[in-house]
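The pair is set out directly below:
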Amino acid sequence: MAQQAYTTETADGGSGPERPGSRLRRLAHRVTDGWRGDPRVWRRGVVLAVLALLLALVMLLHSRIPNRIGNLGSLTETFLPWLGLAVPVLLVLALVRKSATALLAILLPAIVWLNLFGGLVTDKAGGGGSGGDLMVATHNVNADNPDPAGTATEVASSGADVLALEELPGSALPVYEKALAGTYKHHAVVGTVGLWSKYPMTDVRAVDIRLGWKRAMRATLATPEGPVAVYVAHMPSVRVKLEAGFTARQRDTSADALGEAIAHEPLKRVVLLGDLNGTMNDRSLNAVTSQLRSTQGAAGSGFGFSWPASFPMARIDQIMVRGAEPESSWTLPRTGSDHLPVAARVKLDTAS
């Protein structure tokens, strides 16, 4: 195959070979040619520069945004990573506006975003890789799931040793139990949450998260590496309303109750699986997140967004551990639910 030659005009009117990199330089020159000698490049774009600085401040000081008005702080923290999308938008506007001031200002939110989330962009372990003592998975199966049998088969095929399911409707429970019976010898269901395990379970009981009905449980797993306390929880839903803002009071109350239960857990090795209806950035989940480590944050591939399944925008389905080292964490293929299943491999702490 003949090598393609790029040509450029020479001093004598002829043409010579053009290096591929010269095209980028020519493009850069076209963009900046109109800026040279223009004294207004530093005066234009002040509004864009101010917007860039405000964006950086919101990301940098998100924990200072008060929750008194419509839980605005928690709402911002739930979708905090998405604020980074404003950076390229501001960049394009600054180029169109030919504003050197705005371009410099945009560096600040870009640096802040990279400092907050740059580590999540990289694959820290390789999703689905081998390793670890225990593979766990969790899935909010959705009470209106049109294919419970297919959903159960799909998540069981992940190879998880321990599987938690949330939002189990009583009418479909026999379908899930039948579909999972061949993979898991042991299982327990408390209210609308359930736990399936390849290892024996003891001390199964409900966890009171102050709802009035059962949406959380605890069990002790007898793993080859020793006992592990596994919690399964489905926090109350949150809503975003114009008149009330981010309504999450019941979710926050339940999170505090769950955190209290975990704080009193006698076993050193703890795994929490479930739909917390909140992200790790949400301060209202501090009662839980301050005690446990996110497998996605420690060893995940990317952001691991799990909801909504059609276009994931937030990771509200969590796997968190104490007395264990996350080895890898990832999302599983979509099922008939509006959530994506999530999975992780962890190495249990032998000192626990």
Summary: The domain at 134-348 is CATH 3.60.10.10 (Deoxyribonuclease I; Chain A). Confidence is low (pLDDT under 50) at residues 1-11. The radius of gyration is 26 Å. Residues 212 and 303 are 33 Å apart (CA to CA).
